[in-house]
Amino acid sequence: MVESQRHDFSEDYDGEDDGEDTQEGKYLSFRIGNEQYGIEIKHVTEIVGIQKITEVPDMPEYVKGVINLRGNVIPVVDIRLRFRMKAIEYDDRTCVIVVNVEESPIGLVVDAVREVISILPEQISPPPSVARGDISRYIKGMGRFENDVIILLAIDKLLFDQRLTQISA
What we know:
By secondary structure, this protein is mainly β. The chain has one domain: CATH 2.40.50.180. The protein has four helices and twelve strands; from the N terminus they run E-E-E-E-E-E-H-E-E-E-E-H-E-E-H-H. Residues about 1-5 and about 10-20 have low confidence and may be disordered.
């Protein structure tokens, strides 16, 4: 998938329910800095290139503002800032992953989108017990994929913030 291209994940579902969840064990992988992260594909609506973000006053630093996506106002969270990492200038590989959490669309700014990968439950280990602070509560597990370790995020915990919910409503 070309990182700066738009992809609508709702089109991937054919509408037929054959009793098998085709999204089970599938994760969208993306990069922040030198690390790979993943979120369950079932939360992903689409991926768009970075665009004009309108700042909203009195929001946490990691809430960059809102975007207008085809007439829908969507709050945007910079994952780097959410993890208290150093901010970087956005470039042509920077993407916004639009996810649906508690029936609310929210955009996640990431350095680059990688690919959709399959990780079986037996390939997922619990988060390290030595992890401290806020970031550890956002980690769902550590997925083994090929020769890499992917940090799997609990998207609902990552984005649960009263002010985010209010702005997306």
